[in-house]
Amino acid sequence: MEISPTKTVARALVWFRRDLRVADHPALAAALREAGAVWCVFVLDKTILRDLPRGDRRVAFIRHSLADLDERIAALSGGRARLIVRHADAADEIPRLAAQLDVQALYFHRDDEPAARARDARVYERLRADGRAMRGFKDHVIFERKEILTGGGTPYGVFTPYKNAWLKALHARPQILGDCGSDVDGNALAAPPPGLRRDGPAVPDLQDFGFAASPPAPHDDPGLRPGVQGGEALLDEFLDRIDDYDATRDFPARPGPSHLGIHLRFGTLSLRRLAGIAAQRIEGGSRGAQTWLSELIWRDFYQQVLFHHPHVVDHAYRADCDAIRWEQGAQADAQFAAWCEGRTGYPLVDAGMRQLNATGYMHNRLRMITASFLTKDLGVSWQRGEAYFARHLNDYELASNNGGWQWAASTGCDAQPWFRIFNPVTQSERFDPQGAFIRRWVPELAGLDGKAIHAPWKAKAAERDYPPPIVDHEVAREKTLARFGSRGSGSPVVGADE
Ligand SMILES: Cc1cc2nc3c(=O)[nH]c(=O)nc-3n(C[C@H](O)[C@H](O)[C@H](O)COP(=O)(O)OP(=O)(O)OC[C@H]3O[C@@H](n4cnc5c(N)ncnc54)[C@H](O)[C@@H]3O)c2cc1C
């Protein structure tokens, strides 16, 4: 094949993973600039899919987003190229495909989850042995790894100084939010060679790789609109209300948050673009955008925590917190089951869990309340809650989920101080004052009016179909203080996300 003198690589493969778009895609843009022929692949990774429920909503989201990506690749190439989709173990399949296509280089975006790093290291070894290069790019965070460090060169352990350093770094390099792909064209995108072409649609149906054809309806979750198109529609809606985000975001009955988490998880929207939009709005004086950008910075914060402290996957961030004696045994199991199913007798906790079970989404305030309830009222380990969220959240992200759980359990980096314990009734009165969110998700209580809905056991005619509280908050609180007090030498952590 003749390659133009401006190209340094004859043939390249772009490995899509959590970046299912073509716009503002650093790895694709670099490959198109540098290579004479470019192929694009996504692997439905058997090692990841094997453990997921057959009706997993996220797999359906990925499947639909891949179909969208395939169309966009075809359009960018003038109809010539298609996405190559494989159902295999990625660590084996990528080197095999690279050999079949005889590419010189693999282009991809870095992923700092420990399992992804281990997989990528295996791929790297195989490619290197074959004489092929691997070119990694940053995409799903604004600042990664060691880009934001303290003056002493150590990673930040407290959010506010991290955020200040992050904002300073952005101020110094605003171009970091620029679109990285507007100057490239798709001429180099190549059709898969005959032996590698799939008959029929490029993207297999869900049942072709062992999943339910129609997963449970995304009941009441606007965030499950897949693909770039779905993400753009959500973004449009959110931009109409971003200026009010600071005032509305804590009230689950109001349309405050963006529901864009899953689009950031799978890269159907570019994080740089979202941060850029927020930064522009901030220049125009938007306090809502300022608060929203802070949330995106929390996301980067937890990503760098995971990078620098991968032990958090299996342990408390704070070593002394591994000594905490969480409740175990039949009663803890029964209470954990009640928490999972949304029948703890605390209405806002139950409403949050039922929202999660029905939709795969849970409002941030409720993630904090339900996580606090599990760890501080029931004394059940944060790791059990973390695993439950990991299975059910559409926007599940290891770094943020682990960070959120360890924050709520007071075992983590810049966590809530252990002696501050959410009261599930006053939280309910404060953040769902009219009980509108509770009425929606706990219809048994819809008949209760006024304040009664926050603590139905106090009402004259307690609701018969709704359970009494499985634990007395005041008693549980004392037990938690004792549990943390006797954990060893640790001193209280300061600084919290109020
Ligand atoms: C116990 C617990 C578990 C959590 N698990 C996850 C998870 O698995 N995946 C996840 O993305 N977020 C998680 N969060 C953070 C937060 O609750 C969600 O990001 C947010 O609710 C997603 O909804 P949204 O997209 O409408 O958010 P918005 O309020 O619109 O925020 C925009 C984006 O900012 C990021 N963000 C917002 N808040 C946080 C935060 N506190 N930490 C890190 N990133 C944040 C997310 O990417 C989010 O999509 C968790 C929080 C807690 C307390």
How does the SSE layout of this entry go?
Blueprint lengths: L8 E8 L9 H9 E11 H4 L7 H20 L6 E6 L1 H12 L3 E5 L4 H16 L3 E5 L21 H14 L54 H13 L5 H4 L12 H5 L5 H13 L3 H22 L21 H12 L5 H13 L4 H14 L4 H11 L5 H11 L15 H8 L4 H6 L31 H13 L13
Parallel strand pairs: 1-2, 1-4, 2-3, 4-5
This protein binds flavin-adenine dinucleotide (FAD).
Protein architecture, described:
With 498 residues, the chain is α/β, with parallel strands linked by helices. Helices cover 44% and strands 7% of the residues. The chain contains 19 helices and 5 strands. Strands 3-2-1-4-5 form a 5-stranded parallel β-sheet, with helices on both faces. α10 (271-283) runs antiparallel to α11 (287-308). The chain is globular and about 80 Å long. Mean pLDDT is 93; it is low at 489-498. Flavin-adenine dinucleotide binds at residues 249, 257-261, 264, 295-296, 298-299, 302, 364, 367-368, 371, 389, 393, 395-397, 400-401, 404-405, 408.
Mean pLDDT: 93
Question: Largest sheet, order of strands side by side?
Answer: 3-2-1-4-5
How much of the sequence lies in strands comes to 5-15%
Give the fraction of residues assigned to helices.
40-55%
Compute the separation of the termini in Å. Answer: 60 Å
**Spans where pLDDT lies below 50 across 5 or more residues:** 489-498
Helix and strand pattern: EHEHHEHEHEHHHHHHHHHHHHHH
Beta strands, count: 5
The radius of gyration over CA amounts to 24 Å
What structural class should be given to the helix and strand makeup? alpha/beta
